[in-house]
Amino acid sequence: MSNNEVKVAFDKYDADGSGAIDKDELAQLSKELGHELTEEELEKALKDLDLNGDGVIDMKEFSRWWFTGKKEFNGSRRKIL
Q1: Beta bridge partners of 77
Q2: pLDDT value at position 3?
Q3: Is the pLDDT of residue 68 over 90?
Q4: Is 51:64 a contact under the CB 8 Å cutoff?
Q5: Which residues contact 26 (CB under 8 A, 6 or more apart)?
Q6: What is the share, in percent, of the chain residues with pLDDT greater than 70?
Q7: Which of 11, 28, 56, 67 could make an SS bond with 20 (beta carbons 3.0 to 4.6 A apart)?
Q8: Phi and psi dihedrals of 44, rounded to 5?
Q9: What is the phi/psi pair of residue 31, to 5°?
Q10: 77 exposed, middle or buried (CB, 10 Å; 0-12, 13-18, 19+)?
Q11: SS3 at position 70
């Protein structure tokens, strides 16, 4: 998958066009991937993917997650995403 394809996917889930995926948008993303997250799972996923701690997932963070096979950064596969 190319960077352009990842950008298209990112833009799809960045519903408000803010340049970042927030908690609600992450919930929609996980639902569309076939696994709706609980509030607790959503908090964990956001914390794991939000590398700079600003509370949202930016394009760089999303790309890193996408190109690592959608794994947690500690190396274990995230079963919920």
Answers
A1: 71
A2: 77
A3: no
A4: yes
A5: 13, 37, 42, 45, 46, 49, 57
A6: 83
A7: 56
A8: -65, -45
A9: -60, -45
A10: exposed
A11: coil
Q: Which residues pair with 71 in a beta bridge?
A: 77
pLDDT band at 24 (very low <50, low <70, confident <90, very high): very high
Token pair recorded at residue 56: 């949202």
The one-letter amino acid code at 65 reads W
Question: Cα separation of 41 and 59, whole Å?
Answer: 21
* Residue 79 three-state SS: coil
> Of residues 78 and 11, which shows the higher confidence score?
11
- Contact predicate 11/5, CB 8 Å: no
Cα atoms found within 13 Å of the Cα of residue 12, Cβ hemisphere only: 11
